[in-house]
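REVIEWER CHECKLIST
Item 1: Sequence provided? yes
Item 2: Single chain? yes
Item 3: Sequence as submitted:
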Amino acid sequence: MADNGTAAAETDAPTSALIRELLSFKELRPCDEEACRVFFGRLDVCDIRMRFASLHFSMRLFLPSPRGIAFAALDAAEEIVGVANLVHLDRHIAEIALIVRSDRQRRGIGRQLLAQALRWAGDQGFSHLLGYVLRENQRMRALARTMGFRSVGTDGLLIEMRCPISRTTGKERG
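Item 4: Structure as written out by the authors:
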C-alpha cells in the first residue's frame, strides 16, 4: 500500500475553533526506522504503556512484519503523527494496534488511522479486524466502538474488540 491520499482530522480547540489537519498515509518500510524513532521519542510513557501494555518496547513493533503491514499518518510537514500495525492472523482476520503521537491526540488522527485500516483490510478481503485494548484505556475503547468494534472477551487486563468488515465497510466509516 503506497500513499493512499489524504483525510481531514478535526478537534475542538480550547477556544472552540475547529482545527483542520490534512493527513496523508504512507506504508512504513525498514528504511523508515529513523522517522519511527523520532515519533517514538515524542510519546509519553503513559501512551507507550497503553499501546504495548508494558514499558518494554522494540522498534520492530512499529515496522511491518512478514505477516503484516504498518502505515503512518503524516502531517503537512511529513512527520509521523500516528502508526497503525496490522498482522494477518489467518485468511479472514487481521489484528490491529495503533498509537498517536502524544502531543497530537484528540484531533481525529486515531479515527483516520482506524478508518484507513478498515479500508485496507476490506480491500485485502479480511472479514474481521480485532484488537486488544487495556481495560483502563477508555479513549481507545470509545473510539473503537464508534468505528464498529464490539467487546467480545476479556482476560481481566485486556479486552478483545472485534469489528466485522467488508470491502465497503471501510469506505463507509471515518
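Item 5: Key structural point noted by reviewer: The radius of gyration is 15 Å.
Item 6: Recommendation: ____
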